[in-house]
Amino acid sequence: MYAQLVETGVKRIKTLEEMSPEERNFQEKIDAEVKIEPKNWMPEAYRKTLIRQISQHAHSEVVGMLPEGNWVTRAPTLKRKLQLMAKIQDEAGHGLYLYSAMETLGASRDEEIQKLHEGKAKYSSIFNYPTLNWADMGTVGWLVDGAAIVNQVVLQRTSYGPYSRAMIRICKEESFHQRQGYQILLDLMREGTEEQKQMVQDSINRLWWPSLMMFGPSDDQSPNSQQSMAWKIKRKSNDELRQMFIDQTVPQLEFLGCTAPDPDLKWNEERGHYDFGEIDWQEFYDVLKGNGPCNRERIETRKKAIDEGTWVRQAAKAYAEKQQQKQQAA
Amino acid sequence: MDQQHALQEYLLRLGDSSMILGQRLCELCGKAPAVEEEMALMNVALDLVGQARNWYEYAAELEGKGRSADDLAFRRDAHEYRNLLMVEQPNGDYAVTMARQFFYDTWHYFTLQGLANSADERIAGIASKALKEVTYHLRRSAEWIKRLGDGTEESHQRMQDAVELLWRFTGELTTADEVDTSLEAAGIAPNQQQLASDWQGMVKEVLTEATLELQPEDAWMYMGGKQGTHTEHLGFILAEMQFLPRAYPDATTW
């Protein structure tokens, strides 16, 4: 996951006739499902769009560790603690893996992280919501990783080779996280006390809508999607993905014995899909602009970590240089 | 001291030290100086809590009072904890985090190496598995001591300060009490003198290579964790770590 709104910088998609020979060759490769690799020619706008999307995705993995870090020190059993720690470790790994994929496009990790800390780069809005009870560790796995997977399964076929391969690897681990998250909720609902069951419903009430927002603006409000689709960076529209997610999630919700905070949620026989209520787009754009409950805290925490770690990274670099000098002298 | 009691105490020491250090490392989630370190810290923490679970399971079985590994971790108060004082010290800056890790890893490595040959087969099994993980922990923390000690002027000063700050807790790592010696005599715990000299040798070697000053041999040492008398920090660690099982005592599943 988690690139909700990626600028392409393109106002109108060119037709094959309008393209230069290089552009045409590139687009024909894409149309023939041939992966674009780092050394291949690519339009500058494609490269920039990908850097934006992959860096957003990488930032999301790293920022996404914070809402879980909020509970990892308070996990209630050894088993749950170990599971959560393993999940967080995987996320740090995904972050690294994605930053590497991004670097193949000539971007610098430090510069992109700098943009994040200056508020110029985005990450998934979901991580600006607080995790307020233990059941959130289940709900985050089930809904947030669940939404991420719907997006990422499609991205396994994305046109840029390194990104596509990163997605294949990441999807495997995310599916595991999602099952684990759902199991937390299922155990609480089946064997928990009344208070524990209330934790689960409260958690779903808070995270349901923000999870649906993870797919980004609706298609008619998503001017960049068309170019991203033509380049096959994106493969399905925001609304298609959101509908897929809802359709697969509602039966799981019912199996838990919980409800969604959406009175309009119901099966539509004719469409063969669930209908659902209107997302609060004002809230979505507010959070994206920085006015979510935890935006400030998340960025401050990340910035502090990197700023306070400056002397550590400098020391590691100085030490490596000294070692190299010693080796050369020997 | 009868052997059963000594063994019970000893297993709690092993489990509690791993548990508390794992908990301290969890506090650093999302706050490490680089993404690579996020991954490494959580990896080490995961190993430690996993090892704690193995020791607790054995301790709970031996005790035979129906308590589970989770009960041992989440339902004992500070005075019942038997971890080394070193591991409950706050994370501080990265020099403190890494100095604490290195002092502990060195002790942990040589202890597990001895325990891998324990007369108690269950202990030998757990230790052999843990030793593989801890070999990596020690290699990593020793590298960081060298990087920070012999890095920049600032990192050198910070690391020197960290070594000085934590030195008073190292005595407990190399001072045997009756529990240690009685189990050594039974062939269950490693040779305590050997452990102390191995620890001192490794620490001296790494600190010297890191261009750090060694601390005086007659420095005053703060001890008592192994016997259940802790610093003020442990109570707060447990308050956080045990919050849910304590707040919802009727909950039987999570």
Automatic annotation (TrEMBL), chain A:
GO cellular component: cytosol
One MF term in the entry's GO annotations: phenylacetyl-CoA 1,2-epoxidase activity
Pfam families membership: PaaA_PaaC
Taxonomy, superkingdom: Bacteria
Any one GO BP annotation for this protein: phenylacetate catabolic process
UniProt protein name: Ring-1,2-phenylacetyl-CoA epoxidase subunit PaaA
Species name: Marinospirillum celere
TrEMBL record, chain B:
Coiled coil: none
Gene Ontology terms: cellular component: cytosol
InterPro entries: Aromatic_CoA_ox/epox (IPR052703), Ferritin-like (IPR012347), Ferritin-like_SF (IPR009078), PaaA_PaaC (IPR007814), PaaC (IPR011882)
GO biological process: phenylacetate catabolic process
Matching Pfam families: PaaA_PaaC (PF05138)
Name listed for the protein in its UniProt record: Ring-1,2-phenylacetyl-CoA epoxidase subunit PaaC
